[in-house]
Amino acid sequence: MSLPRTKNSTGHLMALVTILIWGTTFISTKILLRSFTPIEILFVRFVIGYLALLLLYPRRFRLQNVQTEWLFVGAGVSGIALYYLLENIALTFTTASNVGIIITLAPFFTALLSAVFLEAEKPKKSFYLGFLTAIGGVALISFNGSTVEFNPMGDLLALLAAGAWSVYSILTRKISQVNLPTIQTTRRVFLYGIIVMIPMLFLLDFNLKGSQFSSFTAVGNILFLGFGASALCFVTWNRAVALLGAVKTSVYIYLVPVVTVAASVLILQEPLTLILVLGTSLTLLGLWLSQTTWSK
């Protein structure tokens, strides 16, 4: 009995650590956008992440079979290239509040896909109650008294990004069943994501120069995104999926706006309003309700 509990505790801890880091990446990204374009930040951070994982675990990856390799390709395309590109492009068409709300639909899409492709992880009614509660909380946090605006193009791209992440979650769960080292499989996923991004460099605003790395601030933040938010977090997230399952791990995405609010208040000295407190409370309640789906 103690072994499953230990695995669950480790999985929850890894998911929580991942979200704590991902929730603060907006600060680094915001700083880097002064001298980098979104595609430049995206490409550089994952190249750094890939090299970091290669140095950490240089053992050569041996192909198991073609079907398994396609899982890596799909995960790299959906979770590395498509998700981040769609999210970044969506931000150029619609507000950050809209994107924040729509992205948190990823756990819902993951639940729907798991019902089809991961029968053992089919969620119960309490998951959907937690989803509605958390979405309400995220909405309060994202808008915080501002006017709700809709932009069909941007909102659709954000919706596609949420769908891409849910596909990544399902594929990651299937990859975890191959019983290969998580660092090695994550490195493989990064490789395919980078390969898919390369043609995009010629279509989007990519003109990387050495002068962009001349300041300590730029180097520090890009290394944080590469080593921390990419290499470390994708390994811990993928390991959490292996231990907890795709759906149970995905609900931690609800916490991203909560961590962002905390970072804004502590680091950027932004005011903490009653709406933010209420939104945070609802989000945490929704996370708890979603997790109770899996309790005996």
Automatic annotation (TrEMBL):
Locate the coiled-coil region(s) and give their ranges.
none
- InterPro entries (UniProt xref): AA-Vitamin_Transporters, EamA_dom, EmrE-like
Q: What membrane topology does the UniProt entry give?
A: Multi-pass membrane protein
* A cellular component term, taken from the record's GO annotations: plasma membrane
Name the UniProt key words of this record, in alphabetical order: Cell membrane, Membrane, Transmembrane, Transmembrane helix
Transmembrane spans: 12-33, 39-57, 69-86, 98-118, 127-144, 150-168, 189-206, 218-237, 249-268, 274-290
The record ties this protein, via SUPFAM superfamilies, to:
Multidrug resistance efflux transporter EmrE (SSF103481)
Subcellular localization is given as:
Cell membrane
The segment(s) forming the EamA domain are 10-142, 153-289
Main location class: membrane
Q: Which family does it belong to?
A: Belongs to the EamA transporter family.
Entry-linked PANTHER family: INNER MEMBRANE TRANSPORTER (PTHR32322), S-ADENOSYLMETHIONINE_S-ADENOSYLHOMOCYSTEINE TRANSPORTER (PTHR32322:SF18)
For this entry, the protein name equals EamA family transporter
Instruction: Look up and give the organism this protein is from.
Output: Enterococcus florum
